[in-house]
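quick one, 287 residues, struct below
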Amino acid sequence: MSELIQNPYKPKIKLQIGDNYKFVNSVVKDYNLNTVCAEANCPNIYECWNRGTATIMILGDTCTRACGFCAVKTGKPSWDDPLEPYRTAMAVKKMNLNHVVITSVDRDDLKDDYGSSIWAKTIEEIHKNVPGCTVEVLTPDFKGDSASLEKVFRASPEIFSHNVECVERVSREVRTQSNWQRSLNVLRSSANYGLRTKTGIMVGLGETFDEVLKTMEDAYYVGVSIFTIGQYLQPTGKHLRVQRYVSKTEFQDYKKFGLKIGFDVIESGALVRSSYHADEQARLIER
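---
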């Protein structure tokens, strides 16, 4: 067994629990909701919840896929909650959010539309009940089904996001049940529909510097305007190992390149995740 690689660029994670953290935690529990912050062991949970933000995860807490990087549990989902879209909107209203990120597990078991009707209903309920709040969605690929995607598009989220997660060469190992080109096509469909489109990747999974640049170019040319890059951190011993830790300088180089080729917003840093500072990104775009 190979030795674990030490991280020479280990970032500091703030572990403070303030009043806002307690408030967000209580709202999530009161409305019986899941968050990717908790389910995926996000390192930014303390910072984000203390800022009064959270990423709500709909359609249950059990994923039908088993990606090598993800801490969300996998198995046979038992979720059956048609009132979840309304409760999600009520939680967003109680938290008094100006911007919310909604994500979900993959629901390949829902053969009719892969859960996209619940996605659309959730967006619609938030727009109806919290009209001052912009909605960012971070969706699965819905198996590339155009009808399912269009249900989400028609609900008019202010930002549509779907992550390619990594460079194409390592995608088969990282996401065994997904397809990199299919993910790129999802992004292309969103941009062609006229939605502000976002994607992100992790680094430290065996990719090269040039492959990251190529991935950024591929995303830009299909219409993506917001791009995020963060360091992959192994959530448990059962998940993929970190192949390398990326320096602050390299993250800065990625950001410079992304802005140069034309992205409106690019977040690049060790602790950057899809939803990290998403509310600030939304404000930048609205200017």
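The chain is about 40% helix and 15% strand.
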